[in-house]
Amino acid sequence: MNTFPLCEGFFSRAAGVVARDLVGRTVVCNAGASPVTAVIVEAEAFEDGADGGVIRKGMLYAPGTIFVMNHRGHLYLNVGTDAAGKASCVMVRSILVGKELVDGPGKVSKRLGVTAALDGRTLGLELGMLANDLARPVLHQNANAPGASKNSASRHNADPRWVAHQQAIAP
Q1: What is the pTM of this model?
Q2: DSSP symbol at 121
Q3: What is the third-level CATH fold of 4-169?
Q4: Strand partners for 56
Q5: What DSSP designation does 158 have?
Q6: pLDDT tens per residue, the chain (171 residues)?
Q7: I need a labelling partner for 25 at 20 to 30 A (CA). Which of 4, 54, 90, 165 fits?
Q8: CA pair distance 40, 33, nearest whole angstrom
Q9: CA dist 98 → 38, 88, 95, 159 (Å)
């Protein structure tokens, strides 16, 4: 499998585009006690306080900058998108660690070992996102999934590469 780190240019696009393109990518976190590697299963885009949302300081970070948001005692992993100073980011909502599906942004951060100390840092050795061969899936908008918004994208089962991946990890 070909892999390489995603750079600032990947994140210098609209949050909705980046969210769709992150699904199927690999995230590697070396910030905790032991490294954790996972596949991103669902990501959600946030831009300009759309849908009445609050614009948080981290949404203004430069593309490729980690934004760790504390929400009701849970840490949520986000990455800045589009341009510095523009309210735009993508939240990682669900990941697959081996055969384990981790759903919910707070659970994702906990499983990866994300801490508030990563906030404001550029993606790199402590927390990185990689391109890989599963990176061009057929996607669907997953607005009807529990807890998802209309800006949420997830893997579509019709993609034969994803189906093969799912079958390979099935119990």
Answers
A1: 0.76
A2: P
A3: 3-methyladenine DNA Glycosylase; Chain A (3.10.300)
A4: none
A5: T
A6: 445 577 778 999 999 999 999 999 999 998 777 899 999 999 999 988 665 667 889 999 999 999 999 999 999 999 999 999 999 999 999 999 999 999 999 999 999 999 999 999 999 888 888 876 443 333 333 444 444 445 555 543 333 333 334 444 444
A7: 54
A8: 21
A9: 7, 30, 10, 19
